[in-house]
Design brief:
The protein contains twelve helices and six strands. By secondary structure, the protein is an alpha/beta fold.
């Protein structure tokens, strides 16, 4: 059964049919891509959905990364979009990799934006389990406070308090069950690195030198695996380079997307 996702940004149709899908990360929504979508829509069809359970999209029962990917694919099929480049931030990158696992011929490229094809290691799994226990015991607020403190560099959080506060306020509306279900799904996701070498499309990587969620060293350990890849490491940037360095990262996404369509 097709699952429709809320799409918070306009869909700008182009006769070329070239489409870019922007997938947000955990505790985020499609609005975080607004400035990217506005610029990229001058060149492509741009879809920035709220993933199930986030933003205005209703949650799925027993949510998993495969059914999140299936929901995005169903939305694209409803829009008659059959081939596309996917840019996935953090959790959105995991969903993008699962989309490629389900239907590789539809993908023209994947950009892992502060994301990774590696499965969680023991330390990361333990951290997710601790977060699940905290949410179940104390509610979502303490977890979200810690999450957003770690998402950005302290410098950016001081410079852009209104932006950070707006994201916190939207995240505060998330259901605790959605948070724990998705944490469990990310904890259990498989290792996709073996697939990177088999992809017949480019894979891009953007990493932050100050990112504590996906350290740049992990990105460096996988970026050589695809047949065609690009790598950018952003100095003094945490886990949200599209907000901390918007112009620079927008240029990276545009150049990568152009490459994908050129090679398609």
């Amino acid at each position: 059964m097709a699952i429709n996702l809320h799409i918070p940004l306009p869909i700008h149709l182009k006769t070329s049919g070239k489409a870019v899908i922007l997938l947000h990360g955990f505790c985020e929504d499609g609005l975080m891509w607004q400035h990217f979508a506005q610029e990229l829509s001058n060149h492509y069809t741009v879809i920035a959905p709220d993933l199930p359970g986030f933003g205005s999209a209703p949650p799925l029962p027993g949510i998993t990364l495969p059914n999140m990917a299936a929901a995005v694919r169903a939305t694209l099929q409803n829009l008659d979009i059959n081939q596309y480049v996917v840019v996935g931030h953090s959790m959105g990158g995991y969903v993008a990799l699962e989309m490629a696992n389900q239907q590789p011929d539809a993908l023209l490229g994947i950009m892992l934006f502060h994301s990774t094809a590696f499965a969680d290691d023991e330390t990361k799994r333990a951290g997710r389990e601790a977060a699940i226990n905290s949410i179940q015991q104390y509610g979502a607020r303490p977890f979200l406070t810690h999450f957003f403190e770690a998402l950005f560099t302290p410098r950016f959080a001081l410079q852009q308090p209104d932006m950070v506060q707006a994201m916190k306020q939207r995240a505060a509306q998330l259901l605790p069950q959605t948070l724990t279900d998705v944490l469990q799904a990310m904890k259990q996701r498989p290792d996709y690195t073996h697939q990177l070498a088999d992809f017949n499309f480019p894979v891009g990587f953007i990493a932050g030198a100050a990112d504590t969620f996906v350290p740049w060293q992990k990105t460096l350990a996988e970026c050589h695996l695809p047949k065609v890849s690009s790598l950018h490491i952003l100095p003094d940037v945490g886990h949200a380079g599209m907000l901390e360095q918007p112009l620079q990262t927008l240029g990276m996404v545009k150049a990568f997307t152009d490459l994908c369509f050129l090679l398609a």
